[in-house]
Amino acid sequence: MPVEPPPSRWGLDASGAEPGEDLVGVGADLEPGTILQAYRHGLFPMGLGPQGGPPLGWWSPDPRGVLLPGDLHVSRSLRRSLRGFEIRYDTAFADVVAGCADPERDGRWITPRIVRAYTSLHELGWAHSVETWRDGELVGGLYGLAIGRLFAAESKFHRVTDASKAAVVGLVRAMEEDGEPWLVDVQWRTDHLGTLGVREVSRAAYLQGVAEAVRGELPVRWRATPVARVARVTECGRGDGMV
Asked: CA–CA separation, 89 vs 29, rounded Å?
């Protein structure tokens, strides 16, 4: 059955893909182990129905949007904006997800089921938020999964100009802290993300990069999370398969 082009997981227009070309599976569950295994193999979940509803689809875009070391572009105007923001990490994960899932946003795809799944991954130490604050108020942010040297960015939002871009800068700062190679996945490149330095790579190149990245050690900022002590156990969970 043909599917519509996916809405942008970053709140932007990602309609450039031909229907169905990036969809590789339908079904399965959203248990932590299922999701982690999927990301390790270059897949991510998003519903095929209206506003991200069922059935659950598994996507592997070709080409893939990525941000690589040295590629981040910070414009002069963004540099000025950064002076007025404070970047925090993992202090308001639920609020960031709620901002990304705002039902008034165009192209929304984050369902209550997705919220529960990634909240569980956050509690286990796999999912993280990068938050933009101004005068004690959350004004933007992003969330995603950190698996080794891979950060799979799920969605971002902003309530003031440049707040989501500032969160991307904060994410790159976290990935760069220990000087090791890294890979940020944004699923689909858009013109907006391109202004930050996001490029496209082939699916084959992305899968090769992911295979290397997930074997690495977590960025130092997230190295003390429960992942090493608890979350690896979840990978023993079994899903119901994709068809």
From this structure: 28
Token pair belonging to 14? 């990602």
Closest of 25, 42, 36 to residue 208, by C-alpha = 42
> What are the φ and ψ backbone dihedral angles of 154, each rounded to 5 degrees?
-90, -50
Cβ-in-10-Å burial (0-12, 13-18, 19+) of 69 comes to middle
Give the amino acid at 207. L
Q: What's the Cα-to-Cα distance from 157 to each of 52, 103, 202, rounded to whole Å?
A: 17, 12, 27
The predicted model scores a pTM of 0.86
Both structure tokens of 29: 């569950």
pLDDT digits (tens, 9 = 90+) for 49-81: 888 899 999 999 999 999 999 999 999 999 999
Q: Which residue has the tokens 């709620």?
A: 98
